[in-house]
Specification:
Elements: H1 3-15, E1 43-44, H2 54-57, E2 69-70, E3 77-79, E4 98-100, E5 112-118, E6 121-126, H3 127-133, E7 135-140, E8 143-150, E9 155-160, E10 162-163, E11 166-167, E12 170-177, E13 180-185, E14 191-193, E15 198-201, E16 210-212, E17 214-218, H4 219-225, E18 230-232, E19 275-280, E20 283-288, H5 289-295, E21 297-302, E22 305-312, E23 333-338, E24 340-341, E25 344-345, E26 348-351, E27 355-358, E28 364-366, E29 371-373, E30 386-387, H6 391-397
Length: 406
């Protein structure tokens, strides 16, 4: 990549903030189970002989992060925003504004967003907002929840930010690892990998955040299934017009930006194909969109946990395609659920019109896992911990994990 192209890429990442700023019954209501496998064990370098890689030294002079404690090789960290202190130049939202579903008219039905439900409260975080801010430090009643999105990997994930009794506020560090967002917390200034929820550098290194069930769905599906839900308002107080995609053409290009991802891409699938990447029981498995679009349902077991993956809403827009998200190419929706309801494992078959029926009770279910007809009417499938990442991101972090082949 030549210098002109590299500078254009860096400007694209920085532009995502919109404005520059200085740092400063069974349901989805319970957090997804934390993986049972332990994060990597941190190592501690000798402070007297320790030296930061030159690229990091140039942007972290003001940081209190303890870089001598890490679970990774620090050379894996790439500078995404070349600034003297890039933290929060892509500004997280710390006081998000919401409005009722019934009062919101600014979104098109096909626009995608992150769906999070906690303690019976359902919220929709439009990707048109998350591509600009990447992190929303939110609360559900009095319970803090961090909702995150990495546009370069297409990973929407929510976490419980309370660690050892401390509520961590997360920000965008301006660093990337394998093209994925690296977050920082304002309590310990440790660095956290978004795609795994693991602290990779600093005094928290080796710790893992507990995931909270999250799925990327269309606004139309969210609104139809959650009429009493909440959606982020178009006015978040930043003066940023939402609805435009700052990463025009990204998902149509042949692969990731090479300054931020320097590994070979597994040739089994195109680098930018989306997969439903499931992580339960400390086990992972990927389900490519191209196969899901044909099957529409997959009954499977990951680790020891029965799951089901639904694929539908084929007109759901790609947030990382055209300049206007509502006018972008159709990409569809893939959601993974735990397949056990009231102690019984269910198996599902497809019906017409984005409906599925379980063989055990004959109940009909929606794409968002809500039972709408039959003995289990009113029940909800619990969303399994998963992401809709690009293939390159999946294989970059889980190279040895199995892939569903149809």
């Amino acid at each position: 990549m030549n210098r002109v192209t590299l500078l254009a890429v860096l400007a694209l990442v920085a532009a995502a903030c919109g404005v520059a700023s200085t740092t400063t019954e069974t349901s989805t209501t319970e957090p997804a189970s934390a993986p049972t496998t332990a994060p990597a064990t941190p190592t501690t370098a000798d402070p007297e002989s320790f030296e930061l890689p030159p690229a990091l030294a140039g942007v972290t002079g003001a940081w209190l992060t303890d870089f001598t404690i890490a679970t990774i090789d620090l050379d894996e960290l790439k500078v995404g925003i070349p600034a003297s202190d890039p933290r929060d130049l892509i500004r997280p939202i710390d006081e998000p504004r919401f409005e009722p579903v019934a009062d919101s008219s600014w979104l098109a039905d096909r626009e995608p967003g992150a769906f999070v439900e906690v303690d019976g409260v359902a919220k929709f975080y439009p990707l048109s907002i998350l591509t600009r801010h990447e992190i929303v430090n939110d609360t559900f009643a009095d319970r803090p929840i961090a909702v995150t999105f990495c546009p370069l990997c297409n990973t929407a994930l929510a976490f419980d930010p309370v660690v050892d009794g401390q509520t961590l506020r997360f920000g965008v560090s301006g660093l990337l690892r394998k093209s994925d967002l690296v977050m920082w917390d304002d309590v310990t200034q440790s660095l956290w990998q978004q795609i795994t929820g693991e602290a990779i550098v600093g005094t928290m290194a080796g710790r893992r955040l507990s995931p909270v069930s999250t799925a990327i769905v269309s606004w139309g599906d969210f609104a139809a299934n959650n009429p009493d839900g909440l959606v982020m308002s178009e006015d978040q107080g930043f003066g940023v017009p939402y609805g435009a995609n700052p990463y025009v053409g990204y998902s149509r290009q042949g692969g990731p930006y090479r300054p931020f991802f320097d590994e070979d891409v597994d040739p089994r699938y195109p680098a930018m194909e989306r997969v439903v990447g499931v992580n339960v029981d400390g086990a992972q498995k990927a389900y490519p969109f191209s196969l899901l679009a044909e099957a529409r349902v997959v009954n499977d077991v990951v680790g020891d946990t029965p799951i089901v993956v639904f694929w539908g809403a084929p007109d759901t827009a790609d947030a990382l395609d055209a300049g206007s998200i509502r006018d972008s190419q159709a990409i569809g929706t893939g959601i993974a659920f735990l397949a056990t309801v009231e102690g019984r494992t269910l198996t599902f078959e497809t019906l017409d019109g984005d409906r599925w029926r379980d063989a055990e009770t004959g109940t009909t279910w929606t794409l968002l896992g809500i039972a709408v007809d039959g003995p289990l009417t009113g029940s909800r499938l619990q969303i399994a911990s998963h992401r809709n990442e690009f293939w390159f991101a999946w294989q970059g972090f889980f190279p040895d994990a199995p892939v569903w082949e149809g």
